[in-house]
Amino acid sequence: MSHMSDQPARWTQATVYPDMWMDPDDDPRTLEGPAPDGELAVLLDYIKNYRLTLLLKCQGLDAEQLARRSVPPSTMSLLGLVRHLARVERDWHNWITDGEPLPKLYGARDADFEGAVADQAVVDAAFADLEREQAALDATLAPHCGDLGARLGREKLAVREMMVHIIDEYARHCGHADLLRECVDGRVGQ
């Protein structure tokens, strides 16, 4: 007697290492040549790769799958993570600038997750928000990357501290994304 389950079977697109998300030759995060040299290059590489990892975890899913709350009663979903990280990128930008802070992207606390609904317009807006907020933060940080100890904005955060904080936030949420994606369609993380 076989047992039926609504849980997706584990699967991967990898053929060389079947326990991985994709084969190393297909992974856009894989660098050819030597690893980055120097603290700034390493920090920038980790930020780029974690941002890309989040996008890879969302790739190929429709609005309903992206908005699916895979671990009830949590409100967390892949779409919610995209919206959350767009909000966080804006918050970081606000912390390191001296001007008036930009308004919250999605309103009250947890609205980034609560408002992550299965609507293609919401999905498109979330990914556009994330791309815009990443670019804005990068543009604000770029002139200061020559001195990783420089302190910026009202919060007087060091550039290095900000970059490590970005890595920390994305790393934590990419771990969530691994589990959420596996619950949606069985695709295993890497």
Characterize the structure shown:
With 190 residues, the chain is an all-alpha fold. The chain has one domain (24-29, 39-185): Four Helix Bundle (Hemerythrin (Met), subunit A) (Up-down Bundle). 51% of the residues lie in helices and 2% in strands. It contains six helices and two strands, in the order αααααββα. It has helices at 39-58, 63-67, 78-96, 111-114, 120-141, 159-185, and strands spanning 151-152, 157-158. A two-stranded antiparallel sheet has the order 1-2. Strand 1 (151-152) and strand 2 form a beta hairpin. Helix 1 packs parallel to helix 6 (159-185), helix 3 packs parallel to helix 5 (120-141) and helix 3 packs antiparallel against helix 6. The protein is flat.
Strand content: under 5%
Strand order of the largest sheet: 1-2
Query: Helical amount among residues, as a percent range?
Result: 40-55%
Helix and strand string, N-terminal first? HHHHHEEH
* Overall geometry: flat
CATH homologous superfamily label: dinb family like domain
Assembly classification: single chain
| Main β-sheet description | 2 strands, antiparallel
What is the count of structural domains?
A: 1
Q: Got a strand count?
A: 2
- Spans of at least 5 consecutive residues whose pLDDT stays below 50 are 1-5
The count of helical stretches stands at 6
- Termini separation comes to 33 Å
CATH topology: Four Helix Bundle (Hemerythrin (Met), subunit A)
Integer average pLDDT: 86
> Any idea of the CATH class?
Mainly Alpha
Q: What is the correct CATH architecture? A: Up-down Bundle
Structural class by secondary-structure content: mainly alpha
Gyration radius from CA atoms, angstroms: 18 Å
